[in-house]
Structures are given as structure tokens and as C-alpha cells.
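Record 1 of the preview.
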Amino acid sequence: MLEIILLIISILLIVLVLLQSNKASGDSGQIFSGGNDRLFGVVKERGMELFVTRLTAVLGIAFFIISLVLYLK
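->
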């Protein structure tokens, strides 16, 4: 039973990670031009983006715990 739950969680984690927006988007030229103005800018997640981030964290913790339980079994 735990194996099936772990499989479902792993598939959901893959889908959620692919749905998340790229927070490091920008020109690769910023590396050389010193574009630090956006690097340390405060960006708050709202709405669906916040929900997806929190759900990813919860599923990641559940994945870790179930994997550990299956390993110790």
C-alpha cells in the first residue's frame, strides 16, 4: 500500500515541479553585466503560485518520510 502511495506522490511531485515558474528567469548576460538589482529583490508569491510551492514542500516531506519508512521496513 505504501509503495502505491509513494508512486502517486512521486508523479505528483514531478508534475508540480514542472508547473512552477522559473524564478531565475532573465538574460544570461546579467552574469557579466552585474544585474544584481533583481537578484535580491523581494518577490512575494500569491495565489496559485503560493499554493503550488507549499504543496510541493508538503509532498516532498511526505515522499521523504514514506521512503524512510519503506527502507526501514
